[in-house]
Amino acid sequence: MQTLKIVVTGPFASGKTEFIQSISEIDVVSTDRKISSDAERIKHQTTVAMDFGRITIDEELILYLFGTPGQKRFNFMWEILSEGMLGFIVLVDSTRPETFREARRILDTFRSYSPVPYIVAANKQDLEDAWPAEDLRIVLRVESSVKVVPCVATDRESVKQVLLELLYSILELMEDE
Amino acid sequence: MALKGRLEDFGITQLLNLINLARKTGTLYLETGGDSAELSFREGKLIYATMAGVDSSLPAILQQAGIFNPEQVQVIRAKMASKTDREIAQTLMTGKRLQPKDVAKSVREHILGLVYQVFSWNDGSFRFEPSKLPPSGTVNASIALESVIMEGSRRLKEWERLQDELPDLDISLKFAERPTTPLRDINLSVEEWRVISFINPRNSIRQIAQFNNMGELQIRKIVYSLIQAGVVEVIRPPRPTAAASGTARAGAGQAAPVSDEMRRPAVKRGIVQKLIHRIREL
Ligand SMILES: Nc1nc2c(ncn2[C@@H]2O[C@H](COP(=O)(O)OP(=O)(O)OP(=O)(O)O)[C@@H](O)[C@H]2O)c(=O)[nH]1
Ligand SMILES: [Mg+2]
Questions:
Q1: CA atoms of B275 and B227, how far apart (whole Å)
Q2: Do residue B22 and residue B128 come from a single domain?
Q3: Topology of domain A2-176, CATH
Q4: Comparing C-alpha atoms, which of A42, A58, A167 is closest to residue A93?
Q5: Which member of A68, A73, B114, B277 has the greatest number of CB atoms within 10 A?
């Protein structure tokens, strides 16, 4: 039995839990708690340790999806979660420009942990005031070799597409060699 | 007990808060890297400040504020060489060459300028000497600390933001290959042009600052705005090759620079293809 891991990261409330929930075959083992601090009370729950989803590929192979915790005080978890990952997805709430800087910082941090392929998913594209993916590429200064794809984490098809795009990037990298 | 410690543990904001709340009188001595500063307080109000390498004499302050030109300042200095700042102010005001409100405003701004610089000192040492006040001939202000703390924190945030954007001044810059705005459509300040003229992959941002005699905050601001305008791009230092790092690990202990280059994960192609097939059919 082989297990593989993809990490889903991004700023607070960018949709990580939702993303994993949409595709996981098990109920996401989420550690969401009611939010107590005022500063972060823009939604009711936040992930305190991590999200954990699963996709069985075949008898031998399982893909795990790990979502990073939203609150800063759990940032020490990042490095642990990134250990041995296949690639990672940076989810950005496209409607909240105030989180873009944080998204960039997260992206850089994960890249420094492990130089595996990654993509940026411009989430919440179903909302009216979502910034287009290509604009996010510019503000987050994502290199042209890295994909920035539109995403709606509540929509399973969209989530599938994001995962596939990451896997294609991984495959392309292998073809180059 | 003397109030002393390290700025890493107890920062400027906390110190000023303490001095304000306890309405302290005395002088705070600060040191960081090669810099040092002294801030004096009376009953919790900021009254005076000096910094090593900065001329805080009244004639220099009045010149900086644009009230006198350098020639006038030279004359004032020559004529009143033996006088204290306070006496100089008195003489100039009696001779109607200086308005009291101009003295107060210039001194206040000079002091604030120094204090806001100190806000970016996040390591080093401090020592507070109670009852120690500036020499008697100096011209003092009386500045409430609440507003200083607020404005200082605001500037500190800006500083941190820039530090975030440009953590490393030892990287270089190059002109953007596909600039989003043509250079001629951008209105550049004199300072920005001075920086532009040194842009070259061989010059680090730090060197450009040195050539132009600019401080870290200033160079960061300028470079950041040039990057935002899409005029320049940063060049990351090349990643050491496997051969080089195999023989000698130079600079051990330093964080490895983030490379643009990606490594393939340690799995077989067939496995990735399996993942793709499975997810497609989900
Ligand atoms: N409209 C819309 N809402 C979304 C989408 N993705 C997530 N949301 C909503 O955004 C909010 C935050 O989503 P979460 O999945 O909790 O975000 P998170 O990244 O796990 O948050 P933390 O764990 O607190 O960091 C929830 O109310 C979601 O229902 C999306 O694509 N479209
Ligand atoms: Mg969550």
A1: 39
A2: yes
A3: Rossmann fold (3.40.50)
A4: A42
A5: A68
Question: Are residues B147 and B25 both part of a single domain?
Answer: yes
Residue A10's pLDDT band (boundaries 50, 70, 90)?
A: very high
Please give the residue range of the domain that contains residue B198. 172-238+258-281
A7 membership: H or E segment, kind and range: strand A2-9
Is B109 found in the same domain as B34?
Answer: yes
Dump pLDDT digits (tens) for A26-71: 776 655 555 555 444 455 566 555 677 889 898 888 898 988 876 6
pLDDT tens figures, B223-244 = 888 887 777 888 865 544 433 3
- CB distance B273–A171 less than 8 Å? yes
pLDDT the model gives residue B241? 40
Amino acid code (one letter) for B164: D
| Element of type H or E holding B155 | helix B145-165
**If residue A56 lies in a helix (H) or strand (E), which one and from where to where?**
strand A51-58
| 8 A C-beta contact, residue B169 and residue B179 | no
Residues B25 and B139 in one domain: yes
How many other C-beta atoms can be found within 10 angstroms of the C-beta atom of residue B47?
A: 21
* pTM score, whole prediction: 0.49
Q: Tell me how many domains chain B contains.
A: 2
Q: Tell me the residues of A at the B interface, defined by beta carbons under 8 Å apart.
A: 2, 4, 23, 55, 57-58, 61, 63, 85-87, 101, 105, 108, 111-112, 115-117, 138, 143, 145, 156, 160, 163-164, 167-168, 170-171, 173-174, 177
- Cβ neighbours of residue B197 closer than 8 Å, sequence gap 6 or more: none
Residue B249 lies in a domain: no
Q: Of the ranges A134-143, B211-220, B224-233, which is most confident?
A: A134-143
Domain spans in chain A, listed from the N-terminal domain onward: 2-176
Listed residues B156, B182, B215: the one ending a domain: B156
- Cα separations in angstroms, A169 against A67, A162, B188: 20, 11, 40
In a domain, B244, yes or no: no
Same structural domain for residues B145 and B27?
yes
Burial of B191 (0-12, 13-18, 19+ CB in 10 A): middle
